[in-house]
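INTERNAL AUDIT FORM
Audit reference: QA-55
Scope: verify that the stored structure record matches its stored sequence.
Auditor: D.O.
Record contents follow.
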Amino acid sequence: MTIHKNFIAGEWLAGSDETKNINPSNIDEVIGVYTRASRNDAENAIQAARKAFPAWARSGIQQRHDILKKVSDEILARKDELGQLLAREEGKTLPEAVGEVARAGQIFDFFAGEVLRLSGEKIASTRPGLDVEITREPVGVVGIITPWNFPIAIPAWKIAPALAYGNTVVFKPADLVPGSAWALSDIIVRAGLPEGVFNLVMGRGSVVGDTMLNSPHIDAITFTGSVATGKKVAAACVEHMRKFQLEMGGKNPLVVLDDADLKTAVEVAANGAFFSTGQRCTASSRLVVTDGIHDKFVSALTERLKGLTVDDAMKDGTHIGPVVDQSQLDQDISYIDIGQKEGAKLAWGGERLNREKPGFYLQPALFTDTQPDMRINREEIFGPVASVQRAKDYDEALVIANDTIFGLSSGICTTSLKHASHFKRNSEAGMVMVNLPTAGVDYHVPFGGRKGSSYGPREQGRYAAEFYTTVKTTYTLP
C-alpha cells in the first residue's frame, strides 16, 4: 500500500514511522498508510517556512489570488470524491462529508477574493504636514494544529487566510484522520506555491505538536482541540511571546420555550445535538426546556430519535454514522454510565450497536431529570449524548443556559420576538441561533466563542485578518 508522505521544503518525504488510517464504519478496512514526522522533520519544516517567508510576504496579490483560486476550484471539482474519503476516515455521513468539502472550497475561494481586497488607511496627523498610513502585514511563520472532527474544513479556514495574508505555514493535522488533510495538502502543493511556503508534518501531538510549541522560529500558532491541550498551547506561546489563537470546547445550550413550534424545536434539537454523531464543538448537548412544553418536547424528541438510522457513513439513508474511534466510544459510554449514577434518567438510547460490518456504533442517548451540577451538564462529552434540563420560565432558562465555563454557541426556539431579542443580547456565547441548530455557520462569517471556549481573534471571514496580520503605523514628512 502506498505510504502518504509529509511535505517539507518543497519535497514529499518519509517520516520516522507510519500509521494506518482506519474506517470507523468498518474497522477491518485500512483507508491508507500515512507517515509520521519526527522532531527533526518538524524542525526542518519550520526552518523551510522561515526561509520562505520574506519572499512570500512580499509576493504579488495576483499570484496569491490565483493560487488560492486554483485550490478552491480543484476542491469543488472533486467534492464527491473527497467527501467519500472524509466519510470513510472520520465517520460522518456522506452528505455531511461532501458538504464539509464544499465548505473548504468556498473558504479558499473567499480568501482568494480577500487577497485582492487588502487595504489600509491614510489619515491626517494632528501635526500639520505629516502623512499617516495604517497597514496590515503578515505575522510570519504560522503553526496550524487541527482536530479530527472537521478534517478538511478546519484546516481550510486556517490555511487559506494564512497564505492569503502572506504568511508561511507549518501544518499539523490530527494524527487520527490524516487522509483529508493529506489530500488537501496535495492540492495546495500542486497549485504552484514556492518552496517552503507550505509544509505538511503529520504525526503525534507529543512529537510534532510539541516541537512546534517549543520552537522560537514560529511567530503564531492557531489551534483547535481540547481545553487541556489548548492551555498547554497558550502557556508555550506566552513563553515565546508569540501570537496564538485557540478554539476549544463547548457545552452549548438550546433553550426551548413554551411558545416554541414543537416540530421546529424537535428538528433543531435532533440536528444540533446528534447529527455528525454529536462530534461538534458547537453541538447543543444541553437542552433547557420550560415546564409548559417539557413533556411534549421530550416525547416528540424521543420519537424522532427512534426514527434515526445509525449505520455505515457511506450508506444511503444513514442519519448518524459511527463514533470516530474506540477511545471516543469508550468516553461516550463512560459518560452515559456517569449520568445514570448521578441520578439522571436515560430516556432513550445509549446502547452499543452492531451493524453489518464491525464499527464504533452508538445509539444516540437522551437524558432527562438532570440537574445543573451533574457532570453530564458540566463537561464536554463530544458524542451523541444530550441532556434535558427543566426550567420554570424564560428567566430561569437563561440563567441555566449561561451557567457554564464555556461560551461557544447557543440557541433558542421561540415564537416570541421579545424573548428572542433578549436572548440574542444576553446569551453568553460567541454565536447565537434563533430557531436554528447551534451547529452550523456560514464560511464568510466570524466563528468563535468566549469564556473557556475560545481565546484570541475570531476565525473565518474578514475577521481572520486580526490574527493573520499585524498592524503597522507609518509617518511621512513629504
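Auditor finding: record pair retrieved intact. The chain has two domains: 3-248, 253-434.
Action required: none
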